[in-house]
Amino acid sequence: MPPGDRTFHAHPSPIRARSSRPIGRPGCHTGDVETPWSVAPPDPLGEALHHLRLVGTFYCRSELTAPWGLTLPPMPGHLWLHVVTAGGCRLETDGAEAVQLRAGDVALVPHGDGHRLRSAPGTIAPSVMDLPQTFTNDRYAQLRHGSGGAPTTLVCAAVQVDTPGARDLVELLPPLLHVGASPRTEWMRATLRLVAAEAEELRPGGEAVLTRLADVLVIQVVRSWLETDPAARTGWLGALADPRIGRAITLIHRDPAHPWTVASLAAEIPMSRSAFAARFTEMVGEPALAYLTRRRMHLALDRLRGGGGVAEVAGGLGYRSEAAFSRAFTRVIGTTPGAVRRGAPVPR
Asked: Where is the HTH araC/xylS-type domain (predicted)?
């Protein structure tokens, strides 16, 4: 990822309405009567965010007084989220220009890279791991640090990327995403006010609330990048925005168990079979049926982790043969369905 030019600054726009029914036309595989909902255009950004499944790992409320500095360690497989609820600071990370954060700003370091937060350039920044913290439990801490000057309050979270589909999306993100406070971000500021209120006084259930709010903020920041940054219009993300290939991807997502073929997907667009196959591979980076298989296996991973049986999951995703499903799952995920059911970690 080239340094310097991948930092993202955005002002997000309101949530778009999404269709909750399959896309189709008279006589298509869905069997539904044609309705305005069934022919609504797909929401490509919503389809991309459907991949983003996160698990809250660690949360910290920091009360800091200038001059102060913190070094956050690398955490592979995680995203670092920082919410400034009062004051301000400077965030520095490799591969991107430093940004100044102010009250109401949100920053995301999506690849778990080590980075620094400072009250001013050049301030000494010891590792946060070496500073005394008060642990409410093994997932929530409070930190007080600094030299008694101007105060800043932060809520920080290290959030684990939990599924292969989420990692596919996160890999495309720049090294730093920053959403600044403005009148246009009032819809996000409502979430920030809830974060600040919960972090101010950790009441019963407050940790669970913070966990979910942090997940919401991560999705909001990523959505802002998807909606506004031209860099998000490359690879399979760019394919989602294409009127034809994006429709094919949406059909796969909404009915992955259907016995799709290249010909049946092409007929839904409509395009010729050969033109569709070539365009899909060019835009997405893999053939349509390979994408379908990968999508099914990501869903299978979630269902197996949720306690589904191998035969049940296989049948629910359109496989008549448990053996064929197991071979596909092992090839795509890197371990067997049985191992996942036993709680084995999934290779990264």
From this structure: 246-343
Contact present, 52 and 222 (Cβ < 8 Å)? yes
Say yes or no to pLDDT of 11 above 60.
no
Using the predicted structure, report yes or no on whether residue 176 has a pLDDT greater than 70: yes
Among 252, 247, 39, 62, residue whose Cα is nearest residue 145: 62
Domains of the chain: which residue ranges?
47-233, 242-342
Calculate the alpha carbon distances from 243 to 43, 127, 141, 302, 320 in Å: 11, 48, 47, 29, 32
**Mean pLDDT over residues 156-185, rounded?**
79
- pLDDT (average), residues 222-231: 79
- The encoded tokens of residue 290 equal 């390979």
Structure confidence by residue, pLDDT tens digits, 277-320: 999 999 998 999 999 999 999 889 989 988 999 999 999 999 99
Coil, helix or strand at residue 71: strand
The residue with tokens 């073929």 is 261
From the number of C-beta atoms within 10 Å of its C-beta (0-12, 13-18, 19+), residue 27 rates as exposed
Measured from the Cβ of residue 38, the count of other Cβ atoms closer than 10 Å reads 17
Taking only the tens place, the pLDDT of each residue in 213-224 is 777 788 888 888
Q: How far apart are CA 222 and CA 156, in angstroms?
A: 17
Q: What is the CATH number of domain 242-342?
A: 1.10.10.60
Homologous superfamily (CATH) for 47-233: Regulatory protein AraC (2.60.120.280)
* Torsion, Cα of 214, 219, 223, 229 (10° steps): 70
Write down the residue that tokens 């294409």 correspond to: 242
Q: Are 35 and 52 in contact (CB under 8 A)?
A: no
Amino acid 139: pLDDT:
76
* CA 176 from centroid of its chain's CA atoms: 14
Give the contacts of 209 (CB within 8 A, at least 6 positions apart).
194, 198
